[in-house]
Structure formats: structure tokens, C-alpha cells
Write a structure and sequence with these properties.
heterodimer, A: alpha+beta, Immunoglobulin-like, 2 domains, 2 helices, elongated, B: mainly alpha, two-stranded antiparallel sheet, two-stranded antiparallel ribbon, 14 helices, 65% helix, globular
Chain lengths: 175, 573
């Protein structure tokens, strides 16, 4: 009885239906535990957390240098569109409240996308695909990404970063 | 046997008048008067914070429901900060201290270790909580509950949280000291009752949790004061979630203990096997402590091996513990009902459960919402790779509103339907409304959770004022935010009704004096039935077997559907 002192002989192994359930639940936990290492080796979507220490100002410099060297145009609002070489590195800078530059990628090619922040924490959320990664100041977070669908994708920020958080957007164009 | 409770309790030892206890007219148990005073104080404070958090909740839901969009942007984030702290920290911690003070005294026939220590804990908690609420509403801490560095709030924000944590630790110390003295003075013979055992598990996890809080909040406070350098934001995330996630495991342990208690009070349920239930609580203590990883699964600088190991902590043995309780609680209720003579078919016993008892219906809804929605989504979202399609979306919020609100808060509300008559010794006013309250609140939260989860599956972020500027979200996402909004109105109505019932009862409820509390309705035994008649039938709980089979199937479908959804997004390493 839950509220009362149990009888002296309460220590007993499980039997019957209870024993079966414990076995099934343990088996299911085992399956779920194995799924992650399986996907790590055989699956295509993994978050390895590859990252390097970087000073925010140094990352700003790298991203500006990248945008200038790979500029292929500007959008209607004058934002730089940069196209990295297939297999190459691209830099995406998060700050209050923008993602720069706009990236132009090719379908089926693989890129190393460097994400970092100049100020607060931000959330890289690629829509409508719904892929999400955390962006921190001081950490150069590298995603090795292969776009497999064409179109214009919006990057929204999904980590609170002050009053303009809901107006912080970026863009990835895949051709 | 009393007609108001479904259990015959053993006659307690005689009370010595000098030790400050009274004999409960309903249960016959001895109630320590000092513990009773602090249970009243902390429970009333808890309900006040619940009310504040509830007012914030409805404002937030009516803002995120884009068709209404109530608050201005600065107040949205301010009220969001306020809601998180009042609900997740203050309401829960105050109520948990009340639960601890009850479980270490009355079931053990013991007296609370020290009134002075209890005062010291309570004053720290209340001063800290008021400080935090004031600073938030003054607009000096718009940092949300997590206050992720480099965001920085007014130093009193951190100091307030530290005080709430140390105050709670002081209360936990009082709990352990009471257990020790009770054992030493032999106020009871044998092992701890299961509810006290579960509360002890919660208290042990609370110590580990609150130490994480101290480790992360103290250097952040000194940084906010300008005395020390800024702690690393990644380090902050890792340690903060040692506080933020594990504190939810305190709730889980307390909630499960309450399920056992209410099952016992309303249907006379006893665990089929005490060893199994107790071992499951031990699994919580041993394997829950690395849950901080769930929040870092798409973070930089923590590698795959770390993420995979720490999110499943030793083959998900903590999940196993919840799955065991998810079987043993309904199984114990079913077993008790079958022994009362309701043996027809798989579910013949279900219609004879005490549905009109709000404690029972609240605990049952708590178990179903926690298990089917909260548990299944939680384990799936906490899978390392699947987190890529879930992190920081409303799916996360949908998950924890099913665990902490539909699960823990509803269980705490359910217990209150016994706490007020037994501890405050007043019968509830407006009993017909009380019988409906768990259904309103539980139903509302279910809609909130589903609305959030589906909107999140479409990528809608959590913690954001407006989703229309981006143009990324279509009418389906807006429909789901509407479902969330309607659910929130229903849940908030249930919450306000709960507060009205509690406050109204404390002011106007009929005093019971030395009489038993008014009966909410408990499961009645059929003539000719006999307790112990099924003692040797280990497969008697056929309804529970069917229920848990459905649960496992739902779990597997949801889990693998999410792997499929993950396989459809761009390859990423």
C-alpha cells in the first residue's frame, strides 16, 4: 500500500505480466539505443558538432572576405549573394538581426558551411525543410551540407536574440 | 473502514500530546502540526504562483495565435520569461516542498525535524521568487527563462533564482533530517512507504539538480555584477540544462509518487510488486542525471559519441523506469478493481472506477497525457539525429507542456483535492465544478500540446513573437496555432477554476473539525468479493496488458515515422 509501511517480505522478483512488460520495455530501449549509432554510420543526417574556436571579430572578417570573393550579385534589397565553389567553404554570419550573405548553392554538391555569431546565441532554422542547428558566438560551427532539392529556402532565427528576433532572416538559393 | 477512502489504514501509534500532532479524523493517521503549517504555507504560495503563471500563459497563447496577436513585442518576451519561471520553477518547487514535508511526516508517524529550518527555507524561497518576478516585470530581465549568455539580466534576477534554489535545498535538508530522526526514534517499523520512497528519489535528484543551478548561476551573477569575466556560452548551456532538465525529473519522480498515492486513496490499489516499483525509482536516480544532453544535440563542440551516449544514458534505463511505472500504476488499479469483483472482460472494471472523484480523474488524465504524449515525444525528440528536425521548434514546447503541465501540474492539482480537506480541514465548495475541473484543464492542455507539436513539425519556432514576417509558414501552421490558442483558453479556464475552488474553499469551505472529509467517491467492492482472491493470478491485469501494448505500438510508429521524416531532409554531417 503506497501510504502505509509495506509488509516485511516485500522483496520479490517480478512475475507474470509484469515480468513480460519489463522485458519488452528493456528490449525497446535497446532498439532505440542501437538506432543512433546505426544512423551515425549508415544514415545521412548527423549532427557531429564539428567546431573551432573563433573570435567573433575574426569570423566577421572571414565572412566578409568570403562574401566579397564569391559575390555573384545582389538581391532587390542590395544584400550580397555569394556562391562558394562546389566542395568549398562558405561562411554564414548571424548577428542581431540578420544572416549574411545570401548563399547560392548547387543541387547535389557538398559544401562546408561555417556558422557563427557576432553577438548573442542564434538558431539556424532552414525552412520549409525544417533543419535546425545552434549558433554560438566564439564557436565556428561547421555543417557539411548537401542540398538535394532546388528552390529558395528561408533561414529563420529560432533562438531568442532580443526584440528584433522575429525579423531575422537569411536565404539559401539552390539551383 | 472509512467510506471516504478506499483503503483501511493500520492503527497508528498513540500520539503523545507533547509532540504536537493531531489525529486525522479521515485516515486515523497522525499529522505533525509543524509540518501541517508549512504544507499550508508552501501550498498556498504554490497556487499563487500558478495563478500568476496562468495569467501569463493565456496572454502568451493569445499572442502566438497570430489571428489575435495580443501583446506588444517587448511585453511578449517579458511575459514569456515570467511564465517560464513562475510555472516551471516557483509553482512546482513550492508544491514539491509541500509534498516532501507531508511524505516525511504523516506516513511515518514522525514530526518535522525543525520549524526554524523550515522557516529559513521558506523565507529564502519566497524572497527569491518575489525578487525575480519584480525584476522581470520591471523590464530588467528580458532574457527568457534560460537566460543564455551573452544575454545578461539585472543581477537580482540571478540572485533571486539562487535564493529559490538554496531555499529549496534547505527544505530538502529538512526532509532528510526528518527521515533520519524518524528512523532513529523508531516512529515506524520496517521499510519506507512507497510514496515516501518516491519522494526520497525526487529529493535526491533535487540535490544534484540544485547543485548544478548553483554552479552555473553564481558565476553568472558575479559576471552580471561586473566582478568576473563572462562564462563561456557553451559551458553555460551544458550546466544550465543540468538544472533545467533534471529539475523536470524531480517533477517526474514526485508525480509518479502521487499517482501511486491517489490510486491507493481512491481505488485501494497496491503495487503488484513493491520491488519493481522501488527499483524503477532507483533507475531514475542513477540514470537521469545526464539529461542536459537533450538540449545540446545540434550544438557545436560536442561530438557524436558524447551526444549519443548522454542522450540515451546507459541504454535508456531512465526511460525504462517510466515505462515500468506506466505499467505498474494502471496494473495496480486494475488488480484492485478485479479483486473488488469487477472481472468482466478486458475493460469491464473501467466503468466502475471512481470517475466523479476529481483526484482520480486528474491522476488518470495525468498518466495518459504524460505517457502517450509527453513520454513518446520526449524520447523521440531527444534522439540525437531526430533532434535536427525538432530543435527549438514548437515541437519541444508541445512535448514539455504534455509532461510538466498535463503530467505534473495536473497530478499536483489532483492531489490538492485531498490536501485541502485533509490538511486545511475544509470541505470543497462547488463540488460539481471541482469534478469537471481536471477534464477542462487536461483537455485544454492536450489541445495546446497537439497544436504546438504539429505547428512545430511544420518548422514554427518556439519563443518567437511573430511568424508572418518570414513568409515561411502557411495556413496549416496558422491552423495549428489556432488549435493551441483554443486549447489554451480551455486550459486557462480550468486553471482559474482551480484557483477559485482552492481560494474559495480556504475562505468559505465548510470546516470539518473532528469529522471525516466529505467523500469524493471511491471504488466500492461488490458483495462477495474478497481482497487477496487474485493473489496467485499473475496475468489478471488483462486490460493493462492491452493498454500497454497499444502504448508500445504507438511509440514505435511515432519513433520510426520521425526517422523517415529525418531521412527526407538534406544530408548533413
Amino acid at each position: 500500500m503506497s501510504l502505509a509501511i509495506p509488509a516485511r517480505d516485500w522483496f520479490k522478483p517480478p512475475v507474470g505480466a509484469e515480468k513480460l512488460w519489463i522485458g519488452l520495455a528493456l528490449l525497446w530501449c535497446f532498439v532505440m539505443s542501437l538506432m543512433m549509432p546505426y544512423w551515425h554510420f549508415r544514415g545521412k543526417q548527423n549532427s557531429r558538432g564539428e567546431a573551432y574556436a573563433v573570435k567573433p571579430t575574426a569570423f566577421l572578417e572571414r565572412s566578409e572576405k568570403f562574401a566579397a570573393a564569391n559575390k555573384v550579385g545582389t538581391d532587390a534589397a542590395g544584400n550580397i549573394i555569394a556562391e562558394p565553389a562546389p566542395g568549398g567553404d562558405a561562411y554564414l554570419l548571424a548577428r542581431m538581426w540578420s544572416w549574411t550573405p545570401i548563399l547560392k548553392l548547387r543541387q547535389g554538391e557538398t559544401y562546408r558551411i561555417h556558422l557563427s555569431s557576432l553577438d548573442l546565441q542564434h538558431g539556424f532554422s532552414l525552412q520549409p525543410l525544417n533543419m535546425n542547428f545552434q549558433v554560438l558566438p566564439g564557436y565556428d560551427h561547421v555543417l557539411t551540407l548537401t542540398p538535394t532539392s532546388k528552390g529558395e529556402f528561408t533561414i529563420v532565427c529560432n533562438e531568442f536574440c532580443g526584440i528584433g528576433h522575429d525579423k531575422m532572416f537569411g536565404k539559401i538559393i539552390v539551383e | 473502514m472509512s467510506s471516504t477512502l478506499a483503503i483501511p489504514l493500520p492503527a497508528p501509534m498513540p500520539v503523545r500530546p507533547e509532540v504536537g500532532a493531531r489525529k486525522c479524523a479521515t485516515t486515523g493517521l497522525n499529522v505533525c502540526l509543524t509540518a501541517e503549517k508549512f504544507i499550508k504555507l508552501t501550498a498556498v504560495s504554490a497556487v499563487v504562483f500558478l495563478l500568476l503563471g496562468g495569467i501569463a500563459a493565456i496572454l502568451l497563447a493569445l499572442t502566438r495565435w497570430q489571428a489575435v496577436h495580443l501583446l506588444p513585442v517587448d511585453w511578449f518576451y517579458r511575459i514569456l520569461t515570467f511564465h517560464g519561471l513562475n510555472m516551471l520553477i516557483f509553482w512546482i518547487l513550492f508544491f514539491e516542498v509541500a509534498v516532501l514535508y507531508f511524505t516525511c511526516t504523516t506516513p511515518l508517524n514522525a514530526r518535522l525535524f525543525s520549524a526554524k529550518v523550515a522557516w529559513a527555507g521558506f523565507i529564502q524561497m519566497i524572497v527569491g521568487a518575489v525578487m525575480v518576478d519584480y525584476i522581470i516585470l520591471a523590464g530588467k530581465a528580458d532574457v527568457l527563462m534560460t537566460s543564455y549568455l551573452p544575454l545578461v539580466a539585472h543581477p537580482l534576477f540571478y540572485l533571486g533564482i539562487i535564493l529559490v534554489a538554496t531555499g529549496t535545498l534547505t527544505g530538502v535538508f529538512n526532509f532528510f533530517a526528518t527521515l533520519y530522526v524518524a528512523k532513529r526514534d523508531r516512529t515506524y517499523e520496517g521499510s519506507l512507504p512507497l510514496v515516501t520512497y518516491g519522494a526520497t528519489a525526487a529529493a535526491i535528484i533535487a540535490v544534484v539538480t540544485l547543485l548544478h543551478g548553483a554552479i552555473v548561476m553564481i558565476p553568472t551573477f558575479t559576471y552580471a555584477m561586473g566582478w568576473t569575466a563572462q562564462p563561456d556560452p557553451m559551458w553555460y548551456r551544458m550546466i544550465w540544462w543540468g538544472l533545467g532538465h533534471q529539475s523536470q525529473q524531480v517533477n517526474v519522480a514526485a508525480m509518479v509518487a502521487i499517482w501511486y498515492l491517489i490510486g491507493n486513496l481512491t481505488t485501494g490499489a497496491k503495487p503488484l510488486n513493491e520491488t519493481v516499483c522501488r527499483a524503477a525509482f532507483v533507475l531514475y536516480i542513477l540514470f537521469i542525471n545526464l539529461a542536459s544532453a537533450h538540449h545540446l544535440l545540434v550544438d557545436p563542440a560536442v561530438g557524436s559519441a558524447w551526444k549519443i551516449w548522454n542522450t540515451s544514458y546507459a541504454m535508456y534505463l531512465a526511460v525504462l523506469a517510466s515505462m515500468i511505472h506506466g505499467f505498474t500504476v494502471p496494473a495496480s488499479v486494475e488488480f484492485a478493481m478485479r479483486e473488488k469483483g469487477y472481472t468482466k472482460g478486458l475493460f469491464g472494471w473501467v466503468t466502475h472506477l471512481p470517475w466523479r472523484n476529481p483526484a482520480f480523474s486528474g491522476a488518470l488524465l495525468s498518466l495518459l497525457i504524460f505517457g502517450f504524449i509527453g513520454g513518446i515525444t520526449g524520447v523521440t525528440l531527444g534522439t540525437q539525429q531526430i533532434n535536427i528536425i525538432a530543435h527549438n521548434t514548437l515541437r519541444i514546447t508541445g512535448h514539455f507542456h504534455a509532461t510538466v503541465v498535463g503530467g505534473t501540474s495536473l497530478a499536483f492539482m489532483a492531489l490538492t483535492y485531498y490536501v485541502i480537506p485533509l490538511i486545511f480541514r475544509r470541505n470543497f465548495i462547488w463540488r460539481s465544478a471541482a469534478r469537471a475541473q481536471p477534464w477542462m484543464f487536461g483537455g485544454g492542455i492536450l489541445l495546446v500540446s497537439l497544436g504546438m507539436s504539429f505547428a512545430g513539425s511544420m518548422g514554427v519556432p518556439r519563443r518567437i513573437y511573430d511568424i508572418d514576417h518570414s513568409g515561411a509558414f502557411g495556413p496549416a501552421a496558422h491552423l495549428m496555432l489556432g488549435v493551441m490558442g483554443i486549447g489554451a483558453i480551455l486550459a486557462a479556464a480550468g486553471l482559474f477554476l482551480f484557483c477559485i475552488l482552492c481560494v474559495g474553499t480556504l475562505l468559505f469551505g465548510e470546516k470539518t473539525g473532528n469529522r471525516a472529509m466529505a467523500d469524493w467517491g471511491v471504488a466500492q467492492a461488490l458483495a462477495g468479493s474478497r481482497e487477496g482472491s487474485l493473489a496467485d493470478d499473475h496475468w489478471a491485469v488483462k486490460g493493462t496488458i492491452a493498454l500497454t501494448a497499444v502504448f508500445l505500438a504507438s511509440f514505435a510508429v511515432y519513433y520510426f515515422a520521425n526517422w523517415k521524416a529525418l531521412a527526407d531532409v538534406w544530408p548533413v554531417r
